[in-house]
Design a protein that fits this description.
Layout lengths: L1 H12 L3 H13 L17 H6 L4 H7 L5 H4 L6 H17 L2 H14 L5 H12 L3 H14 L9 H11 L2 H4 L9 H8 L4 H7 L4 H7 L10 E3 L16 H11 L6 E4 L7 H9 L6 E4 L19 E5 L18 H6 L6 E5 L20 E5 L7 E3 H7 L5 E4 L5 E3 L3 H7 L9 E5 L11 H8 L9 E5 L10 E2 L2 E2 L8 H4 L8 E4 L7 H13 L5 E5 L12 H7 L12 E5 L15 H5 L7 E5 L7 H14 L4 E5 L8 H13 L2 E5 L14
Parallel strand pairs: 1-2, 2-3, 3-4, 4-5, 5-6, 6-8, 7-9, 8-10, 10-11, 11-14, 14-15, 15-16, 16-17, 17-18, 18-19
Antiparallel strand pairs: 12-13
Length: about 675
């Protein structure tokens, strides 16, 4: 039989396929399994149908037979019989007779379902017939039939794995619920809980799996969407039954994060359930307190680190605290052992008293407070420092209070050592109605705590002070001398990393030099925004932007600077020399400058000139990113298109920004 196969292969090699078929057929009929009679193929098996239905190809080959073939003939794994069928199928392939080739390949499966040969040949022919999915399933069946054998035990088994691997991306479909529990949790963690809820309806197995204790983490972040357009309960029905179920699915400790938007109309029972069933709560945001009160007796929240409450608390009565819509004094006090980040809008009037009623929260590091009663009534700052002794990041606003720091003579002794770790200070005046009434004296003193040595980041948001004929900044008007002020005599700012402004708060160059010289000398300052005085002042000359920038010559070449912002400038539109357009040469002196922020409404009607300025900047710098205020160019501006083309050729990313404000709170602090 080996000789017959050898002759057949020789004729196959010379493309004498008809003669080759005769030799391969002779081998098949000579096998002992035929018992001296002609052995026919079983036609009961339908491998392709079984594969399409997700059934077992191996079981189909092994057991399915309703005709006499199964009773007359046994299985056969004779090596010559299998080789002859395989070579004959290959010969039919060469002749283009794929249907005949497939019959012989499936005959191999019928004879020897535990060998890889039949699966390989059927898979190859299926690919030739452009039935890749059937081929993939056949390779998979071959691997499963030989799962007790190692991959390297047979070259043909290795071929199975290689052939299937190339098609896994298209056809490797598996119910995700049947995967390892860790993988199921990871897959569904990309969905919101409101998106996971409908997934329970797929089938009972999905329901049992998704709500099992193993997958409790999927339900522990209860973030309600901003818009009530999701299908999580019948319209008009209460949340209480659903919340009880989800709380049980979350497992021990209940929810870890709860975010309640303004549009969500929770009842008091529902709100209380959320909190009391979540002793392991870590993050809580409540954006409305209308008709809601916090639990005030329980002391179970010893893992709560972040609380945000956005509402107004204007009651003058001590007894109304912790009632519906009022400041949750006792709730916060009961969470004092873990609370690190507190944000709320609406300062309770009780905090203005000579002996204010403020919860003592010794572990709070990040405090963001706004919504002051007014900017006239003095707010006592020292009691706040006692209530929050470990503040590292402080955001005051969106309204600015009239801070009462006490008389200057007493202030130095009284405030010595207060907030020694204050690293971030943000003044937010975005909701101040009358910019002339921003109470800057208290803010100025706040900047000088501990002589400013701990301060790393200083930011001013919508801090516009130039609204009349007198030019002034947070440090005084244009006739003040910083060197003789209390701020200069008692501040160091040696560790400042950044001074940010979103185009409103400008500083006279000499004052900025006094404030920043130490941090520049120590190579600490990395980011600085230069804001130019607004041009409606009659006292400003035409070349005011040139003069203002020249005042910052002391900043040139600072190696630690990697980000600079320029706001409100207007240089001569027809520059005759570099002196008329000094910004590009100014920026070229910074060896490590990588990011530039530009915001200028003056160039709105001079877009070509603004584009020329940006092109000149890119030609002399090594910038990676340029942020441009989105209204600096009109839509579909040709000038902007020119800038983008030039930026792409230089590897500079152009980004349009609607707001230069801080993108993250609390700020991430480096080492």
């Amino acid at each position: 039989m080996a000789d017959l196969i050898g002759y057949g292969r020789q004729f196959y090699a010379t493309k004498n396929y008809k003669v080759a078929l005769l030799f391969f057929t002779k081998v098949m009929t000579s096998c002992a399994c035929a018992r001296g009679v002609e052995r026919e193929r079983c036609t009961c098996k339908n491998f392709e149908k079984v594969a399409a239905q997700g059934g077992s190809i191996f079981r189909e080959a092994m057991y399915t037979c309703h005709c006499d073939v199964g009773t007359m003939f046994s299985k056969c794994d004779d090596v010559y019989h299998i080789q002859a069928l395989d070579f004959r199928a290959a010969t039919f392939e060469a002749l283009g007779e794929l249907d005949h080739a497939m019959k012989d390949a499936e005959w191999i499966l019928e004879l020897a379902p535990r060998l890889p040969d039949g699966y390989l040949r059927v898979g190859k022919i299926a690919r030739l017939k452009n039935n890749d999915e059937y081929a993939w399933k056949m390779y998979t069946a071959g691997i499963e039939a030989n799962k007790e054998s190692s991959v390297d035990s047979s070259p043909k088994l290795q071929q199975h794995h290689d052939a299937r691997k190339h098609r896994n991306g298209c056809f490797f479909k598996q119910d995700p619920i049947s995967l390892l529990a860790e993988l199921v949790t990871d897959i569904f963690s990309y969905l919101k809980w409101t998106e996971i809820l409908p997934c329970r309806r797929v089938c009972k197995q999905w329901m049992r799996t998704l709500t099992s204790p193993l997958h409790g983490p999927l339900w522990r972040n209860l973030i309600f969407p901003d818009k009530d357009n999701y299908d999580i309960k019948p319209k008009g029905s209460p949340y209480l039954p659903l919340l009880k179920k989800i709380s049980s699915w979350a497992g021990n400790g209940g929810f870890r994060k709860i975010v309640i938007p303004r549009v969500l109309d929770l009842t008091q029972d529902e709100f209380t359930l959320l909190l009391k069933e979540s002793p392991s709560l870590e993050h809580l945001e409540v954006l409305t307190l209308i008709d809601l009160s916090f639990p005030s007796e329980e002391k179970i929240w010893n893992q709560l680190r972040h609380v945000t409450i956005d509402d107004y608390f204007n009651s003058l009565n001590h007894n109304t605290m912790d009632l519906s819509g009022e400041f949750p004094y006792r709730f916060l006090q009961n969470a004092a052992s873990s609370l690190e980040n507190l944000t709320f809008t609406g300062i309770p009037q009780q905090w203005y008293y000579s002996e204010p009623l403020i919860p003592h929260l010794p572990k709070v590091k990040c405090l963001r407070i706004g919504g002051w009663w007014d900017n006239v009534t003095l707010f006592p700052m020292f009691p706040l420092s006692i209530a929050f002794p470990r503040i590292e990041q402080l955001w005051i606003g969106p309204q600015l209070p009239n801070l009462d720091m006490g008389p200057v003579a007493l202030w130095r002794d009284k405030w010595e050592g207060v907030w020694p770790h204050l690293k971030v200070l943000i003044f937010d005046a975005s909701s101040v109605d009358d910019v002339n009434k921003i109470p800057v004296s208290g803010l100025r003193q706040l900047m000088c705590l501990n002589r400013g040595t701990s301060l790393l980041h200083l930011a001013f948001i919508h801090f516009y002070l130039d609204s009349d004929e007198q030019m002034h900044d947070i440090f005084g008007n244009d006739h003040d001398t910083l060197a003789h002020s209390d701020v200069a005599r008692h501040s160091d700012f040696r560790n400042l990393r950044s001074v940010r402004s979103d185009s409103g708060m400008w500083i006279l160059p000499d004052r900025a030099r006094t404030l920043l010289s130490n941090s520049i000398e120590d190579r600490q300052l990395t980011s600085f925004d230069i804001v130019f005085p607004e041009r409606f002042f009659r006292s400003l000359p035409e070349d005011s932007s040139v003069c203002h920038l020249k005042g910052y010559d002391w900043l040139r070449g600072s190696p630690s600077i990697h980000t600079l912002g320029f706001f409100g400038f207007l240089f001569p539109l027809n520059p005759q020399s570099d002196e008329d357009l000094p910004l590009p040469q100014f920026l070229a002196t910074f060896p490590n400058l990588r990011t530039l922020r530009l915001n200028n409404f003056y160039y709105r009607n001079h877009q070509n000139e603004f584009a020329s300025l940006i092109l000149a900047i890119m030609s002399v710098t090594h910038l990676k990113t340029i942020w441009i205020y989105q209204h600096s160019f009109r839509r579909r501006s040709k000038a902007m298109r020119k800038v983008r083309i030039a930026a792409q050729s230089k590897g500079v990313q152009i980004s349009l920004a609607g707001d230069y404000g801080l993108q993250q709170w609390p700020m991430k602090l480096g080492s």
